[in-house]
Fold this protein.
Amino acid sequence: MAATKGALAVDLAGLRLLVERRGKSFALLELLQNCWDEPGVTRVDVTTESIARGVVRVAVDDDAPDGFHDLTHAYTLFASSKKKANPEQRGRFNVGEKLVIALANEFWVDTTSGAVHIDVRKNERHTNRRRYRESGSRITADLRMTQDEHLEALRIFRTVLPPPGIETTINGVRLDRRHVVAVERAILATEIADEHGFLRPTKRQTDIEVYDPAEGETGTLYEMGIPVVETGDRYHYNVLQKVPLNADRDNVPPSFLRDVRAIVLNAMAHTLDGEEAAEPWVGEALEDDLVEPSAVSTVMTARFGAKRVTFDMSDPEANRSALAAGYTVIPSNTFSRSAWNNVRGAGTTLPAGRTFPTAKPFHPDGSPLKTIDPKDYTDGEERFVRGVAQLHLDLVGREIAVTLAKDRGWKFNGAYGGGQIILNLFCIEPVLWDEDTLRTILHEFGHAYGDHLTHAFDDGIAKVAAKLVALVTDDPTYLRSLA
């Protein structure tokens, strides 16, 4: 058996098919980011020119003092990259130029250490070690690219965020450094090579720059100025270190993006109006452990107003009371469970039952109500209990049990339900003909017909009041007789 050199062979046609899934625009970005990463670079010029039908020549020049670090890296797949150990450089796998070559008819590198010419169609490579340049490099690629693909590549290229200190041009037009809306420091996931060259996930402190998208742009996540994935969010997020990428290098894990959104929301919540506060990215940020209570409260106020409560399943009447008072009652399905946990943790959006509590003296979650044992009633209290029971029978038409409470911590005059009426003597006098007491009793009798904010409740109060007027008209001593 004859031996041949090389354990693997690369099918350029097959590689090209895989690469084209990403579109052609990434080629410009791959070449640009390599130039930005070169030590000492201060200028990068990119030019594109249609040289034949379906072929665009792309040239990228930089002024890095030492030029291309290792000429063999221009054509060696997965060679060890010095960038892997530096989280503040973009490269990882040393495949950028090779993926561009897969899309090209021809490819040239001219740098301080020599020159390489690759004719992809002939599957030929020519290398010259003569020093062609005193500094910097020029990479040229004749790419198979339609006019529409060319225009799309230029559109995406113009969205890059040039780093400070590196002047970047595209076809002679300088890309201006954009205004940074905010800079937030945070600990984020990244990838760094260990001493053996293996990329390991880790976390480290970095900055996130926040930008307003230009007109016509879509909110995008960037890695050190290079667009990674469009998010559709309100802002551009530029992470100033390596971000954890998928195999195609065109997306990040959902948990990473959620962390970034939460960090940005902490900084920008105060700028959002009600419509912006309801956008999906805000909802995602509210789910994250990194979101701050102050940002949560600011978002809730922007979206629902200062007068807001959450829907309270345990107190339906409180929900109606809140609506009647002009509050927004936030439905339970507005947020995910994790977002609700953060909303509740912020402590500024309470359940309706906390803000508009309905009298529930024997609720299992409440403190025991301090009631008076009937054997301890005074004579006046006994007469009052009998009188209230008789009044209910006369006005409502059925018997009821009457319980007297004396509880300073219970903030209600009375409660009605379950075949009984409870009256709090810390709030009312045990005298039937006292105006405040009688108003409380008639209010509670109204609950024989419905609860608060229902027409049946209002009609019930009117009904028992009308019957009482009729009784007192027939016998002016009626109430005193009950005592």
Summary: The radius of gyration is 38 Å. The chain has four domains: 12-174, 182-282, 305-355, 374-482.
